[in-house]
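Bit of a strange request maybe. I'm writing a small parser for structure token strings and I need a real example to test against, not something I typed by hand. Could someone generate the tokens for this chain?
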Amino acid sequence: MTLEKFDIAFLDHVAIRVKDIEVSAKWYENVLGLKRYQMPKWGSFPIFMLSNKSGVALFPADIQDTPLDTNSKNVKIDHFAFNVTKENFNKVKKRYDELQLDYTIQDHFYFHSIYTKDPDGHTVELTTLVVDENMFYKLEE
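Reply from user aminoacidic:
Good idea to test on real output. This should exercise your parser:
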């Protein structure tokens, strides 16, 4: 059997649960510069926070549910990442410093990444490619 092939155009969104949807929407707007999209037919949620056509969808958490261990390495979304240019990577560091955010920077050989936490403890990564894009993504095959 031959399976039909298709291409994915881009990562549309990652859905996350948050304690206070307005606090989170403001954080993603202020810290990452994402634009708020709230669709009237859906009501008060989700709120999409997007850059171009990629971003996060904010949903209210049920804080009555059993809390999850945020440090667990069990099955879960560990973090999500947005790609930025090298020039914007340097701007991110400056912005995080201006906002007095805690962050870490890691050298992943092919990428440099800066990590911070949103108000609910979700790990948000901004990453930039530091090698030739064609070599890493094998675009010229």
